[in-house]
């Protein structure tokens, strides 16, 4: 009798509400008024003006907030945090995931953040103390920062963790930054060792923390925001100190539901069932079809919420990221599950139903999202089969795909370069990326010289206002598909 994901989410809200946090809604995955960020990549994004003390960016009620908590839908497929290649191949990185978070805006600091994290995980949820590891920042010379001794001391005084389970790591793992600039600070993370006892006796979990091992997994990051990273990469002290935490919701659900993989939780079950029904293949049949099914179950989430939140497939910026994710899913379906007709949009209702309470935007935008996804898959399916055939001919007996060939796949068959790279990787073939980039640049220059903007035309479409969809004329991302013209 494990807890449902809905109950786990609610537990988190209840816990922090009792500690005087206001529960706020998730911001859209398309950041509002932040041109430095393609997609919302952490719960703290929407609070950036509060951290920076930018009064003007705040709504009236936000100015009075001292503590908040929420679940934020995040996308990590671009910029500083890009997990796309792991997705589907591992069991705990997603393109879109929920980040549970609690915040202090110049209010409580390390002591409460650390003590409460332990209280929730161990006292309330019953996780075993001797499976837990805490990591702290070891300091950094370049940034002129010392080891975070304060956090080490607090893990000892505020929790029941064993001393040799408190580990120091460098800034790659223990100094959190949203992007190249912005609010940031040292962090302290919780990791959990899920291996059976025999294995834990043979090799200490400490050796596997931060080693990309799904059995010793990072679950919660407690960030102590004290700085603003400047464009010249120096650190400027903020006027106040803040707490910013992020817990991977799908991961904690897997832990509390006793599953080895996020995909085995009730969060992914309905989608995998639907994919299984569409493909006529069971999940668990074999590794190759399992990867494809996980990729598809994952990608429909990122694609659907992006579109619902206002970023539709296109040739530039956010729109191109969405298109890349979508085409990646379609390729996996075609190649590994023999899904040769539009299928991806059929998953939208399953997802909308699942999230109708937490993220109602999808159920509201459901028809629109289905239409956009269907149009996009239809247009890609027109060239995908031929493109795959051509790709196979291009790499036959070779160990490198030329820049010209990669460019042709892109230009004529609509293969994003990361899709070509993925297919090449599957066959142990390298791609001449530099050659490809050179040809792309030349093409853009030719288009500019000719006074037209070629592929650039679509950047307007990245900015569709969700609220306006009723009377908004969507011009379509290319001329192939009549269905893209949605009134
Ligand atoms: P990892 O090292 O596993 O890639 P991270 O250190 O990049 O995680 P943070 O930036 O610290 O992640 O984000 C806070 C929490 O969000 C993590 O502790 C993890 O539980 C969760 N998380 C991060 N990236 C993903 C992802 N791609 N999919 C699902 N959960 C994630
Ligand atoms: Mg990461
Ligand atoms: Mg990490
Ligand atoms: Mg982390």
UniProtKB/TrEMBL annotation:
Its EC number is 6.1.1.7. Residues 3-487 form the Alanyl-transfer RNA synthetases family profile domain. Binds 1 zinc ion per subunit. It is found in: Cytoplasm. It catalyses: tRNA(Ala) + L-alanine + ATP = L-alanyl-tRNA(Ala) + AMP + diphosphate. It comes from the Bacteria. Belongs to the class-II aminoacyl-tRNA synthetase family. Consists of three domains; the N-terminal catalytic domain, the editing domain and the C-terminal C-Ala domain. The editing domain removes incorrectly charged amino acids, while the C-Ala domain, along with tRNA(Ala), serves as a bridge to cooperatively bring together the editing and aminoacylation centers thus stimulating deacylation of misacylated tRNAs. This is Alanine--tRNA ligase. It comes from Halalkalibaculum roseum. The chain holds residues 2 to 488 of 888 of the full protein.
